[in-house]
Predict the structure of Rhamnogalacturonan acetylesterase.
Amino acid sequence: MKKILLILSIVISTFTFAQKKSTLFLIGDSTMSNKDNPDRNPEHGWGQVLGQFMTTGIEIQNHAMNGRSSKSFRTEGRWDKVEKQLKKGDFVIIQFGHNDQKLKDSTKFTNPHTQYRANLERYVNETRAKGATPILMTSITRRNFNENGVLIDTHTDYPLVVRMVADDMKVAFVDMQLLTEQMEIAAGPEKSKLLHLHFKAGENPYYDKDKADDTHLSKLGAETVAKLATKSLKNLKTGLEKYIK
């Protein structure tokens, strides 16, 4: 009987420990999301490779999804799945903006100074209400060099609004736009192609035709961006740093 009670005690303790294990939730768009066929697919989201830079002491759930904005991520019920799981000690990285810009899609577009800002504030408030820690990030930059080799911004006011919300609400913040701008500029117009998806027809078996995608990331690009993110996250002192290698 004592042996049975001991075994039950160990099982309950193990279960309790597992329940208390912190989770890092990622919500965002295709630049962060997991891609199909990772062994063959050249495209990777930076959240897909984030685990390489984290310890096993925290669980990572990447809920980022291609084509989603701060609006559609909620209206499709994707945030509900995250919010229901949130508990004290968890973390939520929030990174939207790319698809909020889509003027021709009413299911995704948000005005940066009204709807977009309100959506970010709501994500922050609802995360905090569960005792979890929100972390805001600006969108990663696009590889958009002009003929003079100058990197041109494509995100207009969206990153500015993220900065304003982070400042006004005292939210942990990582300026991924700045970090990835520095990354692109350091690589230059030609070498930066390696960070993205540039292939001639037949060069990569995954693509039948020429590929020139300056928004999404190659595995090298994803790993570089994830490394930049974790380096900054480590300096925020939110508690997440203890899980970063």
